[in-house]
Amino acid sequence: MDVDSWLAEVERISAVEFVPVDNSVGVKSTCLPDEFHKNPADRIIVALTRHTSYPLITTDEKILAYKHVKTLW
Questions:
Q1: How many CB atoms lie within 10 A of CB 45?
Q2: What is the spatial distance between Cα 65 and Cα 55, in angstroms, rounded to a whole number?
Q3: Can you tell me the distance from the alpha carbon of 50 to that of 26, in angstroms, rounded to the nearest whole number?
Q4: How far apart are CA 11 and CA 63, in angstroms?
Q5: How many other CB atoms sit within 10 Å of the CB of residue 44?
Q6: 25: Cβ–Cβ under 8 A, 6 or more apart, which residues?
Q7: Helix, strand or coil for residue 67?
Q8: Of 22, 34, 47, 56, whose CB has the highest number of CB atoms within 10 Å?
Q9: With left for phi above 0 and alpha for psi between -120 and 50, is residue 39 left, alpha or beta?
Q10: What mean pLDDT do residues 31-52 have?
Q11: Mean model confidence pLDDT for the chain
Q12: DSSP string, 1-64
């Protein structure tokens, strides 16, 4: 399945909400509390999760170990 078709399919799920990454989230990703690794994509994911207060579903061990983000797994 191509990306556009997959996104359209996921968008139809009522429990899923696409949240844009804006400048505020980008800035917050550079100043997360305590120590967190330097991967920019992970930092943006964590910053967006903190910004929305939504729990994050992930298997990423570094994110799971970070006490400043709410995760489900």
A1: 19
A2: 14
A3: 12
A4: 25
A5: 16
A6: 44, 47, 48, 51
A7: coil
A8: 47
A9: beta
A10: 96
A11: 95
A12: --HHHHHHHHHT-TT-------HHHHHHTTS-SS-----HHHHHHHHHHHHHTPPBP---HHHH
Write out the two tokens for 34.
Answer: 């305590």
In this structure, what token pair is assigned to residue 48? Answer: 């967006």
φ, ψ of residue 18 in degrees (nearest 5): -80, 130
pLDDT of 50 over the 90 cut:
yes
Confidence of residue 73 (pLDDT cuts 50, 70, 90): confident
> Does residue 57 contact residue 73 with C-beta atoms inside 8 Å?
yes
pTM, two decimal places: 0.83
- 69: three-class secondary structure by DSSP: coil
Query: Which pLDDT does position 60 carry in this prediction?
Result: 96
